Amino acid sequence: MRLVAMGALAGALALAGCSLGDGRQDTYLMSDCTRANVGQHSVARVWDEALLDAIRRDVPAPTVHARNLFHTSAAMWDAWAAYDPEADGYFVDEKHEAEDVQAAREAAISYAAYRLLLHRYSIAAGLEATFSELASTMESLCYRIDYVSTEGDSPAALGNRIAATVIERGERDGSLEETRYVDTSYKPVNPPLVVERSGTEMRDPDRWQPLALAQIVAQNGLPIPGKVQSFVGPHWGHVAAFAIPESAKGIPIDPGAPPHLGDRVDEAYKQTALELIRFSSYLDPGDGMTLDVGPGALGDNSLGTRDGNGHATNPATGKPYPPNRVLRGDYLRALAEFWADGPKSETPPGHWNTVANQVSDAGGLVRRVGGKGDEVDPLEWDLKLYFALNGAVHDAAVAAWGVKGFYDSVRPISMIRYMGGKGQSTDVGGPSYDPKGLPLEPGLVEVITAASSAPGERHAQLAAHVGEIAIRAWRGNPEDPATQHSGVGWIRAVDWLPYQLPTFVTPAFAGYVSGHSTFSRAAAEVLTAFTGDSYFPGGLLEWPVPVGTLKTEAGPARDLTLQWATYFDAADAAGISRLYMGIHVSPDDFEGRKIGSTCGKSAWALAQRYFDGSARP
């Protein structure tokens, strides 16, 4: 089995333009080499950053990247644990001794990460730049990239063995890596929704509907072949997880079915659509509405709710959090774009790695794993953090996509266009009544009448559509997003769009449950447990959003700063941002948070057993 895996590595090395060598050299170290200065960062951090760069270049597939983050973290952990008499390895549980344990660990970690990443990103977008960075990273650490031996007790051979084992395990973990993670058995129930046309037709309004676009471009700017979406990862609930149980039906954590509109009409389905339209109506910086978005006003929610009223004081300073009052339309748009795919398109799992790294870099941080015991060095801190964190986000991907694949649920663009095309469901004796239509709400969802569309009236521009449903919402993509913003106004419900780029519109998979909510809560649980504190260092995480840095349209109109006191506050913001963006509804968010909490707690509990050596029988 190892020979097969090493064959894959050989192919990857050939693609990178590297010499394989004969593996019989006495040393894996480059001669006459001065090691690069990595500052205070550990070797594990160096490889995590290289992996994040590879993710940013590739097509944003959160499931795949969560798996790569975890497998790389586990491989690096195994290399570290091999030189610890107690710790258990995850993929490989060998034990070795060395005169210089730190140097041996760094070499084994580097070879394990390098070989694995060469394999995993050999078919990725941006592979030339990724291979170049991986090779230069090895060389900057003075390791030979042509040392491929898996035999013997050298740290390099150990690292190569670990990589080979992870690669071999990945061929049978249910991810369908051999077919580039594509499940060809999935067929959507509904025909495509042609976004540039009004309305939609659905065979089942409870099920996912692919979008048809003139051009599909991923959130990091990479063009996607074809013009109709394909469901990404419907099989992912069957992928081997870290700490959550396996499921024969591919749904490891079942939250129950989402609200329905098809065979039975749930009022909750209609109310979630109404709530989403209301959120869309807030995306206008020109309305003058302001909010206090500081930690003193927002946050501290119970799990799976939006019941929080902020935090009375910053525990690090003992003082109240100062107000942070901003334009509502600017804040909601900035929040939506910040959490969309990570600030640099590292996808949500990678985004939480960047948050974790920012926490690790915080001044005054005392590196006590779990918030107790002796302080550990940066290498041990990083390896244990990545192992637990990325085990959690990998499980979050398996759990969330298990729900997505099983329930195959609808996205908001289909919901609102379908219901809007049916009519209104509030006034039985009124015009355009249909029990599956949108609920009416004055000022938000209305029937277009001759009076309301008369010259000078609120629906004047919709006079040709008397009897149809109008909603007050974001007006869609401006012609020049660099200089224009669309604001909010009355539009036909059948024309509604999420706050997204016109080449993306909505992710290519089912809505229930939200991946962002699941990933984020899982990560927040681990970071809280790992640091021993629910608050960010100093009681605050901040991210500035300067004027003119939004991508979907011009904005923000004024500089603003996003702020969160706790990891849970940031996770909740990530979840609700998807509602402001118009690509999820509340059940997607709330149930995702609950699943994420289970994933995070389970991953942390199991990771500790690997740390202390009690994981294996």
Q: What does the model show?
A:
It is globular, with a radius of gyration of 26 Å. The protein has helices spanning 2-15, 43-57, 62-81, 101-120, 127-140, 155-170, 267-280, 328-340, 347-360, 378-407, 412-422, 515-531, 567-581, 586-612; strands at 193-194, 211-212, 216-217, 223-224, 290-292, 325-327, 445-447, 469-474, 488-492, 541-545, 560-564. α2 packs antiparallel against α9 (347-360). It contains 14 helices and 11 strands. The relative contact order is 0.14.
Characteristic key phrases:
single chain; 6% strand; globular; 617 residues; 11 strands; mainly alpha
For this entry, what is the oligomeric state of its chains? single chain
Largest sheet at a glance? 3 strands, antiparallel
Total of DSSP H or I helical runs spanning 4+ residues: 14
- The level of helicity is 25-40%
* Count of strand segments: 11
Spatial arrangement of strands, main beta sheet: 7-8-9
Q: Write down the secondary-structure element order.
A: HHHHHHEEEEHEEHHHHEEEHEEHH
Residue stretches low in confidence (pLDDT < 50, at least 5 long) are 1-25
Shape: globular
Radius of gyration: 26 Å
Distance between the termini: 24 Å
- Structural class determined from secondary elements: mainly alpha
The percentage of residues in β strands lies in 5-15%
Average pLDDT, rounded to a whole number, is 94
